[in-house]
Design goal:
Helices cover 41% and strands 17% of the residues. The chain has an eight-stranded parallel β-sheet with strand order 7-6-5-4-3-2-1-8. Bound molecules: pyridoxal-5'-phosphate (PLP). This is Pyridoxal phosphate homeostasis protein.
Length: 224
Amino acid sequence: MDQPATPPDTPLADVTARIARAAAIAGRDPAEIRLIAIAKTHPAERIAPLIAQGQRLFGENRVQEAQAKWPALIAETPGIGLHLVGQLQSNKAEDAVALFDCIHSLDRPSLVSALARAMDRQGRRVDCLVQVNIGGEAQKGGCAIADVPALLGAAREADLPVVGLMCVPPVGVEPAPYFALLARMADDDGLPERSMGMSGDFETAVMLGATYVRVGSALFGARD
Ligand SMILES: *Cc1c(COP(=O)(O)O)cnc(C)c1O
């Protein structure tokens, strides 16, 4: 008889195992899927254990909060990647380009210009994903589906390195159709990265082609 598998003893091991299982079901190489630990609202003391367990890729949704927490953590541990997953105001573009390695929330032409200016000034190219308002929700951030081709065109013209698409589906409904739509849009546009899936639905996202999953509460516990 087979030995029972050792149960994962940390949330990080559990989430990693669940990603691998979903990838295997979908016939995908788990190495194609990168886990972004979303650390918003959590202080450095809560982040340090994850770094000690080997996690290197983290996400924040606010520039100012990230500026307060991350420079010290990054200085202590080489190889940390920091991604911005929240709405970005144009007047924070300069700070965002200086601190983050990837921006998942490119959603409008004015931000294309602000990011291009900041990258030119700093001589630093930061990968961007276009956030798509995949559910067509009035109150939600992200570029309307119909406006994505024009935004991608503007980004290419401005020489922004756009590598993929990102979405946050509507709350409380089955997310799979939205993930499938985002993956198809990325395919159609020849973009390799799809940032989709959070604590409640990352396995579904993996099965539908996510290359980045953004997981907060399943790793850190509930936010206040
Ligand atoms: C907070 C946040 C997440 C993580 O959410 P959890 O449900 O805690 O996993 C993912 N993506 C974005 C854009 C977020 O703001």
